[in-house]
Fold this sequence. Notes:
three-stranded antiparallel β-sheet, five-stranded mixed β-barrel, elongated, mainly beta, 0% helix
Amino acid sequence: MYHHSGSVARPTAGSAVGVLEATGAAQDSDAMLFQRCTWCGTAMYHRLLCPVCQGSDLRTERSAGTGTVRHSTVVHRNSPAARNVSLIEMAEGFVVRGRVMGPLIGIHSGDRVRLSQAKDPVRGEPVFQLVDEPYRAWT
Length: 139
């Protein structure tokens, strides 16, 4: 945090300056942690500075784990089988890149997803599962 009486940046006591801390209720291994800027309230995922106001006073919060697919694409390179890479807009307002489990042709923009307990072991990205079955209208 910038100290107004001089040009020296000093961390304040108890602040999480760009670091995700697992404290309190956010210690669950399947929880998704994100930061929220204390100055402007912007939610972000794994950032050191706020992308809106460039503030460094960020507090760590726990996500509910629900979101909406903003964009999804199928990637064929660097893996033995095709996989999807999706941008998920979380309910708290931040966007995260991850993988959605399910049939590749059944994942579309606007689909609702929730965080799975699994995590991609190779890339370390969060893994989501569809809330609604993709072919629910066909049965």
